[in-house]
Specification:
Low-confidence stretches: 4-13
Radius of gyration: 19 Å
Largest sheet: 6 strands, mixed
Number of strands: 18
Length: about 280
């Protein structure tokens, strides 16, 4: 399941779900015409409100979207186009979606006023599932710093949610929430990590003209997977911090993978503009 943005009318029949969909980044707040179907899964928010999520699937290149029905969402802001308080698709992997749902108007300022949900929908007859993650101890993560990783197979619904919080220079804190084999949320753990061998200072030094002079600013997260559950936190200007978040033999470690310098034509933008103007990383 891939994420994207755009408009597209979806169909709501589980038998018709394509094997791959392009998913809009923002969920649609369900209207009066909302009808549950086989892709609908239910749960409750941390404020004890009922919530349901339905996949409105469409065949690519049309976009699919999630329809979110929760009585508290309209109360947060009656403007359905306000993305600051809209349900947001944070990350996807396999048939899993990590969804952030605001539960307070202050969510536009701090994501700690949001709930995180894991939505799983199957292309076969098994029912869709929606689980709310435990609160990460009042901590709100930037949407660009958190990812979901599928850890199971056809008989195992386990997953992990990982977030990397910057502390100072090469020091970070990894927050990890691993589910049980049946896909029910576990508890959050945290590990303070230090980049073992910083390499980007040699390969991709910060120019004197840079407006920001920090070691790493995460632009996006990529899930590489594998037996150890490798996740990469990407700074598109400088490099990728790789971490095997599922390594049960050794404690997680951060490895630095520098990126090449921008082309000559993009050099004036280096560290002075949004890197998305001239580069990106996609894992297929």
């Amino acid at each position: 399941m891939a994420s994207g943005s755009g408009e597209g009318k979806g169909r709501r029949h589980q038998d018709n779900i394509p094997s791959v969909v392009l998913l809009e980044l923002w969920g649609h707040v369900a209207d009066d015409d909302h009808r549950p179907d086989a892709t609908t899964a239910t749960s409750t928010t941390s404020t004890s409100l009922p919530i349901s999520v339905t996949l409105c699937a469409a065949t690519p290149p049309s976009f699919s979207h999630l329809s979110v029905d929760c009585p508290g969402l309209v109360d947060l802001d009656p403007n359905p186009s306000d993305k600051f308080v809209a349900p947001t698709v944070i990350s996807t992997d396999a048939d899993l979606v990590l969804l952030r749902v605001p539960v307070d108007r202050f969510a536009r300022f701090d994501h700690c006023f949001s709930d995180y949900f894991v939505y799983k929908v199957h292309s076969h007859s098994e029912s869709a599932k929606l689980h709310r993650l435990p609160s990460p101890r009042g901590r709100g993560f930037a949407d660009d710093n958190i990812a979901i990783l599928s850890c199971g197979n056809d008989d195992d619904d386990s997953y992990a949610v990982a977030a990397l919080q910057p502390l100072h220079h090469v020091h970070f804190r990894l927050h990890l929430c691993r589910s049980t084999p049946d896909g029910k949320p576990g508890s959050w753990t945290s590990h303070q990590l230090t980049v073992e061998e910083p390499l980007r200072g040699t390969v991709c030094p910060v120019p004197d003209s840079a407006l920001r002079r920090i070691f790493h600013a995460t632009t996006k997260v990529i899930t590489l997977g594998g037996a150890k559950g490798t996740v990469g936190w990407v700074d598109l200007w400088r490099g990728i911090l790789l971490c095997d978040v599922l390594d049960e033999i050794e404690s997680p470690k951060l490895r630095d993978l520098p990126l090449p310098l921008p082309s000559t034509g993009n050099w004036p933008l280096f560290f002075n503009r949004c890197p998305y103007y001239c580069r990106d990383i996609v894992v297929n």
